[in-house]
Amino acid sequence: VKRAPISRIRPRPGDGLEQLLAERGDHLMRAALALTGRRQEAEDLLQTSLERLLRRWERIEDPESYLRRTLYNLAADGWRRRGAWRAKVPLIRVQANSSPSPDPITTLDLRDALARDLLLLPARQRAVLVLRYWEQLSQAETAELLGCSEGTVKSAASRGLQRLRDLAAAREAAEAPAREGQP
Amino acid sequence: MNHDIANLLRESVDRLTEGATVPPGLAGRARRHDRQRMILLRTAGAAGTALAATAAVVVVSIGTNGHSSINPGANSGPRNGLSTRTTAYVTVRMSKAMAAAEREHVISEIRTTAHGAWFSLVERLLPNRVPPPQTSAPVRAGLDPGIFTSNLLTWVYRGQIRQQGFTADGRVLFNIHSTTVNTHRGAPRGLYRQVITNTGADYRARSWWRNSYVPSGYFGYGRPPSSCRDSTPGLQEPVPVAYIGPYDWSAAIRLDLSCGYYNLGGRQWVDGVSAIKLVAAKPLTGPIASQPVPVLVTIWVDTHTYLPVRVMWQWPMSHGKPDGVLVSDFSWLAPTKANIAALQVKVPQGFRKVTLRAGLPMFEFEISAQGS
Fold first, then answer.
1. What is the interface pTM, i.e. ipTM, of the complex?
2. How far apart are CA B70 and CA B63, in angstroms?
3. Which of A54, A105, A172 sits opposite B30 (nearest CB)?
4. Are B250 and B329 in contact, with CB atoms under 8 Å apart?
């Protein structure tokens, strides 16, 4: 039996990545944006996930699943806070927020208080809420993807929703006097 | 709230992310970045493997300060010879790692804290620009006089420098971004001129400025000496004290190392990083401020990456005061899109634009015990 050389059978690492992104990239980009709240950070998160995927490309059977899992787990683990340099990014952003040329996403963000509040939650709670209520995964699926127990998912979702309710209530209370003062 | 928060959340995230698409070229960027990472890892890995073979020798030759992860006494030999060899080994590895980081355009972040000293930011007429040097007093036209800080954050990336000064409680005092462009136009063959553009914001005066500057001559200022014959080590003057402009501190460190200004001083943990300590062979009499003082420089190098994690300058103070100390902690940042964008200065709304009449904003480093 004549066998083809391995190099002809096995694709070059990363072959098919463009196709994967063409098919699923926009959805993953949306997930990254929901998890980070800013387009540039979302791109960084997705790029970092892609790099992880490339490193293991030849050893994994389902690249899309791996990429999605990596993206959510990086976000849940607070990937922004891992390196010392990442801790400095918020320092700079404090000024960026007061810039006269806001990011379109920021503008959109301002219009949408709930999505903005979502960014105030701890990274893991945020990931759980996005998975449960935007991706509409079950508790079991969310737990499997994040590598934790269903109980952890349940409590994180519950706390996250409660926190969102509290933030919304506080905002309504703060806005009420202003509305009363209007003609 | 009366509405189901979970449903609202879904709509809200839908709205937030609507229309988001994968940016073109993201896969290519990921591939490139991953390749760069592999190059860096290979450089550091090779260095780390070789170090493992000689680490015990380092401890034997140093005798103190070795931390417990090293197994001492695995080898023996003449002390001086080994010490010399391992010092050379570390300095070569460090030079290679820094050169690799430079090639890969890694962003260096330097967080500096001064004790018994401060930085002052002034607008100054530089000596190599009209009017002549003797009139080069601080101008302070656009800058609020007396912006002092002991806390600086510096980012350096491919001809760009961003410097922020902070109060002790973390409020921003100033924020400056400087870009240097080299141009060969009008310069003799093989030489170039530099065009430096600054954007800065003074938070206390709520003002900002933008100016450009062309240093006279065909080489920039603040560049490290080109050979050991120049005899002035690059780190004689603290990195953050350099002009707000082009200062190739990475090359300065490499030159210092290659000229043999440092000896091994043991191994220590620096903020959780295992590091090799390099101590200047002798105090340098350098212009750390306007007064010449003997300055002792110490460098800590990451044992895994061979990149510097900390540099400390220390000098004696008059009137029996504790030594003046300047500590710069280094981080090495990936040149991601977000990080590169963060180098730019965003002028806060409501800040008044002012004009710098000449020269450049620049730092002066002053020692409190000796007066200004």
1. 0.74
2. 12
3. A54
4. no
